[in-house]
Amino acid sequence: MTGQPWLTTDVTRVRRTQDDAEVSDALLLDRIAGDDCHALDLAIQRYWRPLVGYLFRLVDTADRAEDIAQRTFCQLWDRRARWRREGSLRGLLYRVARNFALSERRRRLVEVRSATLQRGAPARNPTPVELLEDQQLRIALDHAIERLPRRRREVFVLRCVHDLSYKEIGEIMDISTQTVANQLSHALATLRRALDGVLDD
């Protein structure tokens, strides 16, 4: 058949699109680690929209969500040779994005507090006793959290420190929401037992 070069091009494009859709996340991560720019493009096509949607719940505006998503993919590429291969690409992207979002949230909170103080808002300094009690409780809580099993600790931190939903935690850790609930329940029970003595004092 002659005179229809576009036909071969279109067939090739369709076949490549189908092949791309079948590439697993593990293979995609391997290819990115091997300096494959096309694999990075595929990762962006696959996860850009869900990642921005997830980030939009953590930051104030769509612009900030898109900015953090862009930084996430840049970091994926910049550190491509250093990522652990046994994790999921989706989980990796969500973890990196979450860290960026939380850093952004903390930075903005500091800015707001600083602006409030500069406007002369009254601020009561805690007493030495309050500082000591707060420090003792924080140290005891940190130690109790560190002693939790790894997955249980991660679920607790994501839920109680970073305020993520069960569904979000399940997506990040690649576990069911029921598993998230079970792990969180066990973590809270363990921490309550560990802190009983401190709270009683």
Give the uncertain stretches in residue-range form: 1-18
The averaged pLDDT comes out at 76
User: What radius of gyration results from the CA coordinates?
Assistant: 23 Å
The total count of strands amounts to 0
CATH class designation of the largest domain: Mainly Alpha
| Largest sheet properties | none
Structural class: mainly alpha
Percent helix = over 70%
End-to-end separation:
88 Å
CATH topology of the largest domain: Rna Polymerase Sigma Factor, Chain: A
* CATH superfamily descriptor of the largest domain: RNA polymerase sigma factor, region 2, helix turn helix motif
The CATH architecture of the largest domain can be given as: Orthogonal Bundle
Domain count = 2
Q: What proportion strand? A: under 5%
Q: What order do the SSEs take from the amino end to the carboxyl end, as H and E?
A: HHHHHHHHH
Structure description:
The protein has 201 residues and is an all-alpha fold. It folds into two domains: 14-123, Rna Polymerase Sigma Factor, Chain: A, CATH 1.10.1740.10; 125-201, Winged helix-like DNA-binding domain superfamily/Winged helix DNA-binding domain (Arc Repressor Mutant, subunit A, Orthogonal Bundle), CATH 1.10.10.10. 78% of the residues lie in helices and 0% in strands. The chain contains nine helices and no strands. It has helices at 5-22, 25-33, 37-56, 62-78, 89-118, 128-146, 150-161, 166-173, 177-200.
